[in-house]
Design a protein that fits this description.
With 360 residues, the chain is mainly β. It contains 2 helices and 26 strands. It has a domain of 211 residues: TolB, C-terminal domain (Neuraminidase, 6 Propeller), CATH 2.120.10.
């Protein structure tokens, strides 16, 4: 166990700037590597994943951290490694904690969904629920966030693995959002069961989904993904739909200024709800409950890597974006993940190994 200092960075009284009540921003932990995933066991206990393969339990009351034993064996290479972590909404009854990570397979990397239980400070009972058919040696575009809907399904995303043709190929899991029962079995009503695609696929045509969140109040599955140069997207995910990559895109090629794909929109392919041009590199997505900050209820929060800020999106009842705000740009940090605690506080992590909290 190690003790990490609590830092109070700034106190904002800026209702005119952000349209909010006064709040404080505190840096509560530092000294970690890339904090990729965060989840809560209760309001004062957080679990985090370090992309290199370590998992920590953080006590938010006394500001201590404990390195947990028996993590999964991950392949930490380039963009891959230990990715997301989510405590199941049914944790008190079932005891499962869910993970996505990159597994080494024939010296290549593949996105994997697994679960385990935690006793004291060690994991046990590991189960690999799905080792996806997405293996390449590219080392990029693994996805991958985890979310649960109120019916008990688990969802996670897989990137196109740097091979654009994967986006339209439903014979592999690359470039898809996947839906499973919590035990890893396949729902009978998944759209490609008994048809021409893999049974686990829920939607396809994605480039690199690094944000996925089920909004139980509106019964909407939101997703965000990295575009190429320009063209990052927020999407509303629907069963069986094709989100276009790489046939349609709002981005441009890296080596010149030509457009990627055939068009920005095409019949039979879903248009994004919102597009970021130039890219912000969205790294996570969360819908805020409004428990503490009433003015934020229903707003979307996204981490931004390339543009180094916390992105806030306000929607109307028809899911049109009415406002985009870029918070904490002055920190100049690659914000990797943003989550809400059980008591309504907002935490975000950076690639510099820091964790912050926004609270009254």
């Amino acid at each position: 166990m190690r003790l990490l200092r609590l830092f109070c960075l700034q106190i904002f009284a800026v209702s005119s700037m952000y349209g909010l009540q006064n709040y404080t921003l505190e840096r509560v932990f530092s000294g970690f590597g890339v904090v990729w995933g965060m989840t809560f066991m209760d309001s004062h206990t957080m679990l985090i994943t370090h992309r290199e393969g370590e998992i920590y339990k953080l006590n938010l009351h006394n500001k201590t951290s404990t390195k947990l034993l028996n993590p999964p064996n991950v392949y930490a290479y380039n963009q891959g490694g230990l990715l997301d972590i989510q405590v199941s909404p049914w944790y008190k009854k079932e005891g499962w904690i869910y993970f996505t990570y990159v597994k080494k397979q024939n010296d290549k990397g593949v996105t994997t969904l697994a679960r385990a239980k935690l006793k004291e400070n060690a994991f046990f009972g590991w189960e690999e629920l799905l080792v996806t058919h997405s293996v390449t040696d590219t080392g990029v575009h693994f996805g991958s966030r985890i979310t649960f809907d109120k019916e008990g399904y688990v969802y996670f995303g897989v990137g196109d693995r740097g091979e654009r043709s994967n986006g339209q190929d439903i014979q592999n899991h690359a470039g898809t959002v996947i839906r499973l029962h919590r035990d890893g079995s396949i729902p009978k009503d998944n759209p490609f069961v008994g048809k021409n695609g893999l049974d686990e696929i829920y939607s396809y045509g994605h480039r690199n989904p690094q944000g996925l969140f089920y909004d139980a109040k509106r019964e909407i599955l939101f997703e965000c993904e990295h575009g190429p140069r320009g063209g990052d997207e927020i999407n509303i995910i629907q069963k069986s739909k094709n989100y276009g990559w790489a046939v349609v895109s709002h981005g441009k090629e890296y080596w010149n200024f030509s457009n990627v794909g055939e068009a920005k929109s095409k019949k039979g392919m879903e248009d994004p709800m919102y597009v970021y041009t130039p890219s912000i590199a969205p790294s996570s997505l969360m819908v805020y409950s409004g428990k503490v900050f009433k003015n934020w209820e229903g707003d979307l929060f996204l981490g931004a890597l390339a543009k180094t800020h916390l992105n806030k999106i306000t929607l109307d009842k028809q899911f049109n974006v009415t406002k985009e705000e870029r918070l904490f740009e002055n920190l100049n940090l690659r914000i990797r993940n943003v989550v809400e605690s059980p008591d309504g506080l907002i935490y975000f992590s950076s690639d510099s190994g820091e964790i912050y909290v926004i609270k009254p």
